[in-house]
């Protein structure tokens, strides 16, 4: 018997004679898992899923949203590649090492999701999140999941509303004709007179285990979750990357901590402000090269009342003359730290009555990992070792001594501006309503 349909607040409810399978009783909590598929053999863009987008591995954007949503009992990445596995774990995910059978070019997403479900029988609801949707926010996932847990839907998927007039190519014999698909050319509607069409944007698909075992991601009692166009970014080919990067800088999710509270930047001299080389003259004088773009970045922060302190470790000792010259050129205090970098930074923060969320940290190697992890914002230059890149919240496109500090400074200021704009909108909303 054909299914009947009725319109719901957000989508279409499919009501058929066949009853949906009940996994657990209504009084028992279901295990809800987020699952991101990230195969290593991407044909369009090699290792696309861990390519840096606005300083963050592509997969990191959706992992951060999933983890920070606090809606999932477990967050997983399904992959067949060692480097993707390392990045996934660094961003808080568990890893499902998919089998060769579901790692082929011909393998579908459903094949991999079904394998994951078989290997994890405790999971009742799976949210398939696509790594190529970097503007996903925690509130999207929370609101969509509530349609499963509170409204009783068995599948919920994300859509975006488009106002595109579509045409179809029709081949008849040896000739080709064109005909409209969703409009009457003699009576073209104005945009404001047309609701548009709902198109899947690929951000996420919530499905119950019962549906997945039946071989579908959408079925039973289904509904759509509508996302605004600014959040609907999908990266497919390399040409999409610059556009997506600009979009994610404006509309992406940057974490729970609000960046406008950053009051202090701690920046390593060697390997961040400089390229790590120390030049020695014939007379024995030590010299380093400092890029004017980086010093300008420091002054941009200082104008916005962000204190900048340059730090040097015991392994990269600066002569007093060199430290004095750097201080004079940048307008920053230069501090020499010992082997316990985290302890000395914490003492410095206590003196200034600061929390970690108020500190931005720029490091470049293993000794900086703890501070990179703890700081509200953290960054490394492009040429930093992997151990530091995995700990940082932002990875610069620029190398050490060649504009990395300027890039991180602009990133800090962009986030501060974005946060202030949001605060202003919230204030207007409170005053209006």
Automatic annotation (TrEMBL):
CDD domains (alphabetical): CMP-NeuAc_Synthase
MF terms (GO), sorted A to Z: N-acylneuraminate cytidylyltransferase activity
Catalytic activity: an N-acylneuraminate + CTP = a CMP-N-acyl-beta-neuraminate + diphosphate
Entry EC number(s): 2.7.7.43
Pathway of action: Amino-sugar metabolism; N-acetylneuraminate metabolism
Keyword vocabulary terms for this entry: Nucleotidyltransferase, Transferase
InterPro entries listed in its UniProt record: CMP-NeuNAc_synthase (IPR050793), Cytidylyl_trans (IPR003329), HAD-like_sf (IPR036412), HAD_sf (IPR023214), Nucleotide-diphossugar_trans (IPR029044)
Name of the protein in question: N-acylneuraminate cytidylyltransferase
